[in-house]
Specification:
61 residues, flat, mainly alpha, single chain
């Protein structure tokens, strides 16, 4: 996400909006679903990968 440059002599302000209980509940449900989808896709990817064998370094004495 980039920054928005303010033109000269113009000030941008953000007016906070108070969420209703219903909006908070919907947002929480959306976040829960996204986390669940991310975790399941992440575990599926990690299950496909096979662990790489450890290689021993040659030691010169």
């Amino acid at each position: 996400m980039g920054l928005i440059k303010e033109p000269i002599d113009v000030d941008f302000t953000v007016q906070p909006k108070v969420w209703t209980t219903e909006e908070e509940r919907e947002f929480s449900e959306l976040i829960r679903e996204q986390k669940k989808a991310y975790n399941t896709s992440k575990s599926a990817v990690s299950a496909k990968r096979t662990p790489t064998p450890l290689r021993r370094k040659k030691v010169l004495a």
